[in-house]
């Protein structure tokens, strides 16, 4: 017990914020429950269990489901999407009549998958005949079901929730914030709905999800009828970054949730100041209901609270012994789900064409050291390790035949003085958005690339695409290439 107390004290001294894995966050503090890019959170409670997922973009398997029993300690338990339907954006996870539904938009369409248990298996995606983004499900007490979309549009659903039965109608126009506010766009998005004490409550996002630090926000409206008219909350914006001096920027895209003890919370995302390339973290804090039936933060919304960081989603080393990829891994590239083999101590890219494929993880830390051991590879394949933003934006080191290559974006330069056919290990470090790359024959003695890469501009406001930096192993070119092991270590 004494050693645990000393360790806790050391952690508090070592980190700028408190670090904890503790009780539910009903304390007026701001809790960071998932670091790294976990944007557009959606959360549902089932008894004393909570389940959550996020946008998974163009990575597969997609829509990782996280589980918690206290809202602060989270573990991944399944992936809900195993078919490539395009770029997956903000989902809505709900439970209705004993079945879990996950609605999500992709490539101009909307889909739904279902499961009896969030651990899976999840159904194949069913396409819904409605355009738009950010679907939000709601059912009346009588069982009639609807799907709200961005811009306040709503469509009726069939009783089983798997089919759209009418045309979109705009029923809500959002909250008009002051004209002199610095935002990205009006952008009424992410309608998340509940029914409570005779009112339907819509929690929505406005202001744009990037742009200025003060752009994003969480707004609230309510109505006696699911189809409106909607009355905007006097406490809007419920969540907002009021100043560039705050620790988290562009806070928004909220969902409200209660626990089994009657406490209420809002879960949302935000960029950390000075670390925009790291993506949007998932945040949670307590809310309370007023006597006249509105909800607001349990603290002064214009005073930044104490921030508690929770050490969830750690990246694990992998020797690829299992025949199934661990839940920390995502794939990118054409036919990614059919372009690999794993097990017996190897991960193998099987590229039928010359398009890039990647194997990547979401790092909860912004500073880390990554090392991989290479296996057999065809001479035409460029097999590398990178700090990755997109196929066109990355810093990496690779081998191809007897060559070693330093890569920045689409520029390739030779790494002179070493032979690719001798190199067995690659290493990349990211520290304060600065990347260094290394090669080794034995995994003990490392040769550093002559160039250090500055990646602080690799964020959405500069490059678009709502992407973020993360470690990625890649294969570029036609043929097969193997990885034997993966090692990850956080850096201070």
Description of the molecule:
- By secondary structure, this protein is mainly β.
- Strand 34 and strand 35 form a beta hairpin.
- The longest helix has 13 residues, at 2-14.
- The record marks 134 as: Important for catalytic activity, responsible for pKa modulation of the active site Glu and correct orientation of both the proton donor and substrate.
- InterPro entries: ConA-like_dom_sf, Glyco_hydro_43, Glyco_hydro_beta-prop_sf, Glycosyl_Hydrlase_43.
Task: Summarize the SSE layout with pairings.
Layout: H1 2-14, E1 18-19, E2 30-34, E3 42-46, E4 49-53, E5 62-68, E6 75-81, E7 92-96, E8 99-106, E9 109-115, E10 126-128, E11 136-139, E12 145-148, E13 153-157, E14 169-170, E15 189-196, E16 199-206, E17 217-223, E18 231-232, E19 239-240, E20 248-258, E21 264-272, E22 280-289, E23 295-297, E24 307-309, E25 330-332, E26 340-342, E27 347-351, E28 357-360, E29 368-377, E30 382-390, E31 393-400, E32 403-408, E33 411-414, E34 425-431, E35 434-440, E36 447-448, E37 453-454, H2 460-463, E38 470-476, E39 479-490
Parallel strand pairs: 1-24, 2-24
Antiparallel strand pairs: 2-22, 3-4, 4-5, 5-6, 7-8, 8-9, 9-10, 11-12, 12-13, 13-14, 15-16, 16-17, 17-18, 17-19, 20-21, 21-22, 22-23, 25-28, 26-27, 27-39, 28-38, 29-34, 29-39, 30-31, 30-38, 31-32, 32-33, 34-35, 35-36, 35-37
- Write the CATH fold name of the largest domain: Tachylectin-2, Chain A
Helix content: under 10%
CATH architecture of the largest domain: 5 Propeller
CATH H-level superfamily of the largest domain: Glycosyl hydrolase domain, family 43
Mean pLDDT across every amino acid position: 94
Low-confidence stretches: 1-17
Q: Mind describing the biggest β-sheet? A: 8 strands, antiparallel
SS-based class: mainly beta
Head-to-tail CA distance between termini = 26 Å
Count up the domains. 2
Beta content comes to 35-45%
Per DSSP E runs of 2 or more residues, the count of β-strands stands at: 39
């Amino acid at each position: 017990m004494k050693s645990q107390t000393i360790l806790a004290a050391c952690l508090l001294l070592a980190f700028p914020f408190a670090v904890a894995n503790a009780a539910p966050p009903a304390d007026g503090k701001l809790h960071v429950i998932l670091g790294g890019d976990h944007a557009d959170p959606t959360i549902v409670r089932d008894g004393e269990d909570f389940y959550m997922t996020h946008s998974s973009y163009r990575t597969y398997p997609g829509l990782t489901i996280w589980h918690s029993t206290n809202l602060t300690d989270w573990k991944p338990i399944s992936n809900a999407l195993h078919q490539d339907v395009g770029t997956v954006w903000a989902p809505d996870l709900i439970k209705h009549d004993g079945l879990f539904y996950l609605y999500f938009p992709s490539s101009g369409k909307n889909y739904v998958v279902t499961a009896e248990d969030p651990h899976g298996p999840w159904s194949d995606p069913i396409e819904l005949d409605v355009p738009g983004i950010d679907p939000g499900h709601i059912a009346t007490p009588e069982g009639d079901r609807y799907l709200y979309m961005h811009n306040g549009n709503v469509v009726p659903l069939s009783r089983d929730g798997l089919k759209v039965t009418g045309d979109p109608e705009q029923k809500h126009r959002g909250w008009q914030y002051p004209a002199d506010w610095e935002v990205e766009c009006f952008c009424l998005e992410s309608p998340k709905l509940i029914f409570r004490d005779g009112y339907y409550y819509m929690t929505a996002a406005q202001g744009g999800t990037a742009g200025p630090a003060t752009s994003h926000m969480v707004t609230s409206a309510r109505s006696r009828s699911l189809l409106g008219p909607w009355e905007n909350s006097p406490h809007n914006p419920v969540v907002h970054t009021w100043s560039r001096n705050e620790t988290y920027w562009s806070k928004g895209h909220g969902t409200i949730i209660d626990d089994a003890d009657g406490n209420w919370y809002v879960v949302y995302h935000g960029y950390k100041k000075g670390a925009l390339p790291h993506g949007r973290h998932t945040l949670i804090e307590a809310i309370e209901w007023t006597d006249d039936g509105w909800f607001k933060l349990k603290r002064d919304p214009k005073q930044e609270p104490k921030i508690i960081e929770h050490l969830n989603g750690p990246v694990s080393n992998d020797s690829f012994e299992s025949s199934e990829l661990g839940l920390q891994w995502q794939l990118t590239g054409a036919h990614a789900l059919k372009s690999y083999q794993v097990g017996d101590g190897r991960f193998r890219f099987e590229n039928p064409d010359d398009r890039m494929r990647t194997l990547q993880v979401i790092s909860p830390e912004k500073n880390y050291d990554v090392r991989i051991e290479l296996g057999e590879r065809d001479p035409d394949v460029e097999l590398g390790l990178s700090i990755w933003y997109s196929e066109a934006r990355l810093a990496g080191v690779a081998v191809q035949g007897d060559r070693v290559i330093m890569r920045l974006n689409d520029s390739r330069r030779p790494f002179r003085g070493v032979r690719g056919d001798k190199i067995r290990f690659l290493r990349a470090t990211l520290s304060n958005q600065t990347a260094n790359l290394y090669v080794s024959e034995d995994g003990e003695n490392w040769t550093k690339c002559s160039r250090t890469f500055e990646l602080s501009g690799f964020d959405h406001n500069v490059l678009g695409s709502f992407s973020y930096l993360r470690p990625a192993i890649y294969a570029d070119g036609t043929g097969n290439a193997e990885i034997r092991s993966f090692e990850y270590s956080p850096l201070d």
